[in-house]
């Protein structure tokens, strides 16, 4: 822990001790809870978490023992994504071995048709090595909401729901990264295949935002060189 974090930790502990001695149990607990919430990122600066996340292409074979806990926490973070009209359109499909095998075989079939059987077999072997799988989907259903029905659904809310789900995926990836694992978000052709929908049991108005692989990174890529600097992407208006 760096010096700044160490100082913050000691101050927080001293504050907790003083509050506990001065206030009744309930008030003390509430204040301590708020104190702990504000110090979540003492050890890892939030911007550092954002900037050190990488797309992981190779994972260790086994998931950590606390993987389920990490994923539950990550999904709780994911559903706090910005969401206009509070439609909460996201679903998180956690895939087990049987479903993973079906998806991998379907993807290999798709690849084989385009690039040949050898390419399909290589893809099958690679995909089967991925330790953890989440499929994030978006469900758009406005039948019971008169206010939403009065809007241009195709050009407005459907896009907003998709954007909200993409924000949820980013939250998911960042939370998993902060817990010591890594992710890769894939949006290949298999996501849009009707058989994929059947395998996942999608509802009528549900579609895939992508497949998210997760696990302990076997190798962490170097930071990519950005083609544009911050001044290059800023447009200032009077």
UniProtKB/TrEMBL annotation:
UniProt source species: Chaetoceros tenuissimus
Pfam families found in the cross-reference section: Nitroreductase
Alphabetical keyword list: Flavoprotein, FMN, NAD, NADP, Oxidoreductase
Nitroreductase domain location: 51-215
Coiled-coil stretches noted in the UniProt entry, renumbered to this chain: none
GO molecular function, one term: oxidoreductase activity
Organismal lineage: Eukaryota, Sar, Stramenopiles, Ochrophyta, Bacillariophyta
Stated name of the protein: Nitroreductase
Cofactor needs: FMN
Entry's family note: Belongs to the nitroreductase family.
InterPro entries given in the database record: NAD(P)H_nitroreductase, Nitroreductase, Nitroreductase-like, YdjA-like
Domain of life (superkingdom): Eukaryota
């Amino acid at each position: 822990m760096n010096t700044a974090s160490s100082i913050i930790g000691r101050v927080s502990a001293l504050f907790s001790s003083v509050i506990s001695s001065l206030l009744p149990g309930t008030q003390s607990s509430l204040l301590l809870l708020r104190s702990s919430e504000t110090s979540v990122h003492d050890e890892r600066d939030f911007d550092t978490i954002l900037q050190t996340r990488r797309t992981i292409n190779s994972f260790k074979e086994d998931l950590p023992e606390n993987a389920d806990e990490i994923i539950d926490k990550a999904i709780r973070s994911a559903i706090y994504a910005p969401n206009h009209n509070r439609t909460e359109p996201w679903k998180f499909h956690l895939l087990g071995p049987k479903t993973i095998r079906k998806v991998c075989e379907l993807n290999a079939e798709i690849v084989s048709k385009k690039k040949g059987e050898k390419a399909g077999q290589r893809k099958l072997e690679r995909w089967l090595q991925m330790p953890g799988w989440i499929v994030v989907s978006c469900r758009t259903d406005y039948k019971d909401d008169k206010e939403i029905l009065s809007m241009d659904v195709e050009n407005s809310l459907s896009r907003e729901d998709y954007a909200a789900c993409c924000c949820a995926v980013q939250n998911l990836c960042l939370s998993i990264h902060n817990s010591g694992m890594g992710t890769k978000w894939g949006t290949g052709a298999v996501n849009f295949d009707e058989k994929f929908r059947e395998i996942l049991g999608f509802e009528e108005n549900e579609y895939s935002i992508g497949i998210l692989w997760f696990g302990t990174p076997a190798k962490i890529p170097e930071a990519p060189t950005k083609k544009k600097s911050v001044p290059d992407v800023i447009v200032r208006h009077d």
